[in-house]
């Protein structure tokens, strides 16, 4: 939840950077223990509400009510996990529950309340509960446990005083730290700020992520051939791996051999690396569009929203292209960078626009 700010303060946006952790075996064991303890907190909430549901009682979904149950449990129930980290899991459950309730109220029958157990859950600590100095991060633990200090594998792009939260998570066999900071909105010199009256249209494409048409006949095309090549190479590599291990694949209900489990671990690592490469390329493409708009004092970006075509069955080849498109992420990164640059982004529905004459 964002903290309350004085209306007179400069406008800020919240940005998150992910950094890996350089750990010893002991540090890794303790961090994994924190994530497992967070999963135990999640499981306790699920069991509590399952018991209340069986007795036809109202579920406990409010954050304050869940925190009171946590306080009644007493200290030392979840290993080295401190109360601030446990409350972050309760906050995650409460947000998921009320988000599902809001979707069901609006008529979305596919929305489901959180009822699935997790072995590990991300843990978040807010400002003043952790310490960050350059690459050194001190993670809070329960009272009576030895201090836990880890080292990040890279420098953060934010000053330490602007960091508002740190999230510990596990992804593809590695431990990561998501660092969220307050970043001020760009302040321009008089006469150099974006003009809301200058509008540019943005079209999202499968091959080229952004095609921009600005005023005075100016245009920009951001090439996405490198991303498409990454998708093709990843698909080719995935097919080759599957053919190589097809005969060792376990039958339904079997655990699988050690070689099969090693293949599955390696597959998760490769998939995560591919996703990071595509995500980074899309961030760089959005940065190019915003830099082009700022240089031309464009204050409004009209972005066509083509997400309606994702539900159309167009054959396995084109379905693969639209699945790899990640159009929602393209819109999200462009909106985030436009907000930081002081540019307004407006989404427009593209349905029927191909049949409208631009001269009429």
Structure description:
- This protein is an alpha+beta fold.
- The protein folds into two domains: 12-183, no CATH class; 192-225 and 271-355, YqgF/RNase H-like domain (Nucleotidyltransferase, domain 5), CATH 3.30.420.140.
- The chain has helices at residues 25-54, 63-73, 83-105, 225-245, 258-295, 316-325, 327-340, and strands spanning 12-22, 123-126, 131-133, 136-139, 148-152, 163-171, 174-184, 195-204, 210-213, 219-222, 298-305, 344-349.
- The chain has a seven-stranded antiparallel β-sheet.
- A hairpin with a 5-residue loop joins strand 9 (210-213) and strand 10 (219-222).
- The protein is globular and about 70 Å long.
- The mean pLDDT is 90.
The helix fraction, in percent, is 40-55%
Using only C-alpha atoms, the radius of gyration works out to 24 Å
Question: What is the CA–CA distance across the termini?
Answer: 47 Å
List the uncertain runs. none
Number of distinct helices: 7
> What is the ordering of alpha helices and beta strands?
EHHHEEEEEEEEEHHEHHE
Query: Which term fits the overall shape?
Result: globular
Helix vs. strand class: alpha+beta
How would you summarize this macromolecular structure in one to three sentences?
The chain is an alpha+beta fold and 360 residues long. It is 41% helix and 22% strand. The protein is globular.
SSE topology sketch:
Elements: E1 12-22, H1 25-54, H2 63-73, H3 83-105, E2 123-126, E3 131-133, E4 136-139, E5 148-152, E6 163-171, E7 174-184, E8 195-204, E9 210-213, E10 219-222, H4 225-245, H5 258-295, E11 298-305, H6 316-325, H7 327-340, E12 344-349
